[in-house]
Please model this.
Amino acid sequence: MSAYDAQLRLDWTDDPPISVLIDLTDERIKVKSGEVDVADWALNEVRVSAMSDGFHVRAEGEEVVLEVTEDARFALDLGLRHAPPILRRRMSALLRSDGDRSRGQEPLRPFGPPPPRSLRSWGKQPLPGDNLRRAFRRSGPH
Model:
């Protein structure tokens, strides 16, 4: 069972969103708020689009927007191929880390410490912009 915490809102109202639990099992999307069943759709009966403000779900002539906490995992479980760039990056990172774990490797960290700034530690390689600074020094004041 794949379960996701989310906020559900109706696209056409200003009502505040409600907290829901989304269950993706047996080729169905089941949406529940507390003990209340909000929706139960077969995956082939709905259209899901990843947008910058959440997942737009169209079913039975209505549209709801789901803001899912684990949006990258949710998109991958739905088999979505199109998404806004930031979500695509998270999906790609998740696929890479899952692949690394299946091979027994630790996932790569997305950001490491910045490279050292001294020429000595860079092996006497010029730093970016050094040639430009030298050219301005040679040309003197204008």
Summary: Helices lie at 71-78, 85-102, 130-139. The two ends are 70 Å apart (CA to CA).
